[in-house]
Amino acid sequence: MFKSDIGGGDADHISIRGYDLVEDLIDKRDFVDVLCLTVLGSFPDANQRRMINMFLVTAADHGLTPSALATRLTLHGAPESMQGAVAAGLLGAGSRYLGVVEYAARFLQQAAADFEGSDEDAAALAAHAEGVVASEREARRRIPGIGHPIHVEADPRSNKILAVAADCGYYGRHCRYVLALAEAASRVFGKPVPLNATGAKAAVLLDMGLSPEFGKGMTLIGRVAGLIAHVIEEREQPISQALWDVASGKQNGR
Question: Which positions, given as ranges, span the membrane (predicted)?
């Protein structure tokens, strides 16, 4: 017989990681608690809960992004399918939008591991980060976690994320390195290349000892809230037909 260590149930009981859903969890634990229990196998402490809640809140929505547009256009074709529309928005989470935290964390993890000096040595850290940026520039590769098409000068979320991380005791080697990376990129490219929210979250995630996959999962869970909101708004104030009209040239008389 197949079974899962995550949870199970019979006619009288449902359990998650050994805890009874009815007796131990419902009305006794909040969603972040149960999320951590389900995914990580244990309840978070106060600082972990605060950080993971922040990851979810930060990811909730960012306006009419590609994921939101995918959700709205899918709903236009299948208005009865909220789940299909939300899934469409999540399917586009990748290396450029929405899913970047996983790639930023992997990149940062490797770059920080390659730096053999102390992260307290600002000059050595800056020199190493500048070498990484120069190498990526020469290879014409995008560095995940820095720069933003909208927040060109500075991402207002980044400082907040790092400040909360410091308050919770999670401001470590990866947080210091990612700041050095953004500063190095600004020098190499000769223009502001700010640390974005994804880069900040990736650094904190690693300093918490969590995996890149977990970070991507938190982004997806958080964004579901925003995509549901786009489904509701699209039903009440539709724009998908107008988007299609623009794409098909109808508004230009073609």
Answer: none
